[in-house]
Amino acid sequence: MDTNSRGNNGMESSQLPTIKFGTHYHIECVRDGEIAWVEDTNNLIVLTGLEYILGSALGDTEKKDLFCGLLDEYAVKPEDTMEDHSFSEFKGYSSVKRSPTHFESAGVVAETVVYKAENVQFMIFEPAVLNGIFMTDNKEKEEDTGLLFGVAPFVDNKQVIIGDALIVTITVSAEG
Q: pLDDT (tens digit, 9 = 90+) per residue, 35-88?
């Protein structure tokens, strides 16, 4: 049986069995009813996030709710955790907790499985320059415990002012 080319089942095998995971954030900053800026950025899913994905699919890791936070200082390495990282969380938004994400299947797009969390919101009450975004299972702002799923830089620093609303769509995808 030829395992290096398309067989009757239509799937290709690979020399190295890998799955590619990715996260994409689409952020719109709404100011006075108009879109002030838009940011599209991709995520580094850190090692703890990759362990969580595989552990919850194939092992005995319990599914967790994920929450989104904003960064005013971006830095990340694959081995970062919530307990040990270099980024700085921005806390100047109205919720006392990090914004919840509610992922739903968006189906299969071009042989990629896609899940989306839409309408993740932040209401800004403190002016700042933002430069990243992250996901964790810890809903408490300023707490550095729990699972760090991933961290994404903004392409350019983004300024927010009092009254801005950030509307975030998070897309997580996997390709075999």
A: 999 999 998 899 999 999 999 989 999 999 999 999 999 988 899 999 999 999
**In a domain? residue 103:** yes
- Please report whether residue 13 resides in a domain: no
Q: Give the contacts of 79 (CB within 8 A, at least 6 positions apart).
A: 46, 47
User: What integer is the mean pLDDT of 14-27?
Assistant: 82
For residue 137, is it within any domain?
yes
- The whole model's pTM is what? 0.86
d(C-alpha 153, C-alpha 83), whole Å: 19
Q: Within a domain: residue 168?
A: yes
Domain assignment of residue 138, given as a range: 20-175
When divided into structural domains, the chain yields a total of: 1
Q: What is the DSSP string of 136-173?
A: ES--BTT---S-EEEEEEEEEEEEE-TT-EEEEEEEEE
